[in-house]
């Protein structure tokens, strides 16, 4: 009990401390000393929080109610396999992006505010993963939007403020749609717990048609956070304006909150038995496939690097949602594998983009010519991570997309069972089209490239080590498929 509470409230209190202590920008002759203290404190807080989360997962048998809101609604925490999976992803990405920030944020103002909200987000994410019922989950889902909004508008520019407001508007609209569904669920069941907590057979039999509509609205609402069409527009607007490590966190972890929410909703509705084969499943699969293709096409046409990666996230997140919508074991395993694979790959890609921006100031794709000669380690990591996103073996992206395709073909859904793998394949080709040219132009700039002005610009270890760790993890998932897929299949049952 105490470990779970500490893993949630320690980073929140630590973040609040930094916000109060460093409420004004670092300046003057003491800036270097103050910054060293700030970075040291933040690093210690991140490591301690990560240790608390790991210890909480090792003692995951604890379940407890923090307090009761009403006679039937409570703030309840319980760690299950799904929550543990998302929590481990969050811990790894938060640590890597956090340590990357210590060098990257040197050229940004108000570092204290950034690190304060970064720690707040860490605590809220832990609470989201450890939430044991839908009420607790929804509470921290809303808090996640409010705390991450500060990372989006950190620079304070007009573009950042407008992007932050857009992110807030879309997220709140989606959350309120989900809240609409929660109101009705409370009328039909006394428990909204995730572990073995699904609607009764008698309730489904009596109100099946209406509950299908409720389930669809909730999935659409939570799908906003995951960038699902038609409420995806916030994502390519918010990601490019945020600092690169914050973009990595948003793309690799924060958007996965929508995925986790949908998994919880499917559990409550007993999806394979109640939702499979209905109009709701067909409509949802169509939306995910539209998003997969549309996101890849927009990424292919986008000239700004970070915005291209943001459109890519729109597409890749719907790979996961497509697997959930198919509602069989193979597709579900593929979705969970892609949660991990995409998380590590996209965090690595955004950190690579951040390293390039930090060292060269280049932000557009056409400016990347010869960048592999200047930053070889960074671009090699970018290339390997790109292969994972495309789905080239032995990366984890290949394994997850294999399971998704097999699950789709086994679903037996007319037309969509074959159309799904075709669109996934076309999307993979588009992914190669918008990522690999950066590698080719970066390492092979052509005979007319001025090699005389070539200068090595590789960033320091605080930036390169996190990138290498995330890149290696994206490959390890594909190198050990049997152990990982078996584990995910077990916890998904």
Description:
- It is a single chain.
- This protein has 493 residues and is an all-alpha fold.
- The chain has a domain at 276-493.
- It is 75% helix and 2% strand.
- It contains 20 helices and two strands.
- The chain has helices spanning 2-21, 31-58, 81-104, 111-130, 134-152, 158-188, 201-223, 234-241, 244-254, 256-268, 271-274, 279-301, 305-326, 329-360, 371-374, 376-390, 396-411, 416-443, 461-479, 481-492; strands at residues 63-68, 74-78.
- A two-stranded antiparallel sheet has the order 1-2.
- Helix 9 (244-254) packs antiparallel against helix 14 (329-360).
- The longest helix is centred in the last third of the chain and has 32 residues, at 329-360.
- The mean pLDDT is 85.
Write the layout of secondary structure elements.
Layout: H1 2-21, H2 31-58, E1 63-68, E2 74-78, H3 81-104, H4 111-130, H5 134-152, H6 158-188, H7 201-223, H8 234-241, H9 244-254, H10 256-268, H11 271-274, H12 279-301, H13 305-326, H14 329-360, H15 371-374, H16 376-390, H17 396-411, H18 416-443, H19 461-479, H20 481-492
Antiparallel strand pairs: 1-2
Keywords, please?
2 strands, two-stranded antiparallel ribbon, 493 residues, globular, mainly alpha
| Sheet with the most strands, sense and barrel status | 2 strands, antiparallel
What fraction strand? Answer: under 5%
Give the helix proportion (percent range): over 70%
Spans of at least 5 consecutive residues with low confidence: none
State the distance separating the first and last CA atoms. 26 Å
What is the residue-mean pLDDT, rounded to a whole number?
85
Count of DSSP strands: 2
Spell out the helices and strands N to C. HHEEHHHHHHHHHHHHHHHHHH
Category from helices, strands and their pairing: mainly alpha
Sum up the overall morphology in one term: globular
How many whole angstroms does the radius of gyration measure?
Answer: 22 Å
- Helical stretch tally: 20
- Describe the strand arrangement of the main beta sheet, using strand numbers: 1-2
The assembly state of the depicted protein chains is single chain
């Amino acid at each position: 009990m105490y470990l779970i509470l500490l893993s949630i409230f320690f980073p929140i209190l630590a973040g609040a401390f930094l916000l109060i202590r460093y409420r004004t920008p670092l300046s003057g002759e003491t800036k270097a000393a103050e910054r060293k203290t700030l970075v040291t404190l933040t690093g210690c807080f991140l490591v301690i929080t990560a240790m608390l989360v790991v210890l909480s997962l090792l003692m995951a048998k604890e379940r407890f109610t923090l307090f009761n809101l009403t006679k039937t609604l409570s703030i309840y925490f319980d760690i299950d396999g799904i929550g543990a999976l998302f929590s481990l992803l969050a811990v790894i990405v938060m640590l890597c992006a956090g340590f990357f920030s210590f060098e990257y944020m040197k050229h940004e103002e108000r570092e204290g505010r950034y690190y304060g909200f970064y720690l707040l987000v860490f605590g809220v994410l832990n609470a989201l993963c450890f939430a044991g019922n839908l009420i607790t989950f929804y509470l921290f889902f809303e808090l996640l939007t409010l705390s991450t909004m500060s990372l989006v508008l950190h620079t304070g520019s007009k573009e950042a403020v407008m992007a932050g407001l857009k992110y807030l508007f879309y997220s709140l609209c989606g959350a309120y749609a989900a809240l609409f569904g929660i109101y009705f669920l409370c009328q039909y069941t006394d428990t909204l717990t995730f572990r073995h907590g699904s609607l009764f057979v008698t309730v489904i039999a009596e109100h099946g048609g209406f509950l299908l509509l409720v389930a669809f609205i909730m999935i659409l609402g939570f799908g906003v956070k995951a960038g699902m069409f038609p409420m995806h527009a916030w994502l390519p607007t918010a990601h490019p304006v945020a600092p690169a490590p914050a973009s990595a966190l948003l793309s690799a972890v924060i958007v996965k909150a929508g995925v986790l929410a949908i998994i919880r909703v499917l559990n409550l509705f007993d999806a394979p038995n109640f939702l499979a084969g209905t109009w709701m499943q067909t409509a949802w699969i169509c939306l995910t496939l539209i998003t997969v293709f549309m996101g890849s096409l927009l990424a292919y046409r986008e000239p700004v690097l970070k915005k291209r990666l943001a459109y890519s996230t729109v597409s890749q997140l719907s790979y996961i949602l497509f697997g959930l919508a198919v509602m069989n074991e193979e597709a579900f395993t593929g979705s969970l594998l892609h949660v991990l694979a995409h998380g590590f790959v996209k965090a690595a890609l955004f950190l690579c983009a951040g390293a390039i921006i930090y060292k060269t100031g280049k932000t557009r794709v056409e400016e990347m010519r010869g960048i592999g000669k200047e930053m070889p380690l960074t671009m090699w990591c970018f290339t390997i991570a790109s292969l994972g996103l495309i789905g080239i073996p032995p990366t984890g992206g290949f394994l997850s997309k294999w399971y998704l395709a097999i699950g789709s073909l086994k679903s037996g859904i007319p037309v969509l069972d074959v159309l799904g793998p075709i669109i996934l394949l076309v999307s993979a080709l588009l992914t190669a089209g918008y990522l690999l040219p950066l590698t080719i132009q970066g390492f092979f700039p052509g005979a007319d490239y001025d090699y005389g002005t070539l200068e090595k610009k590789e960033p320091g270890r605080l930036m390169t080590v996190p990138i290498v760790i995330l890149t290696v993890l994206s490959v390890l998932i594909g190198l050990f498929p049997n152990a990982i897929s078996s584990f995910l299949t077990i916890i998904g049952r």
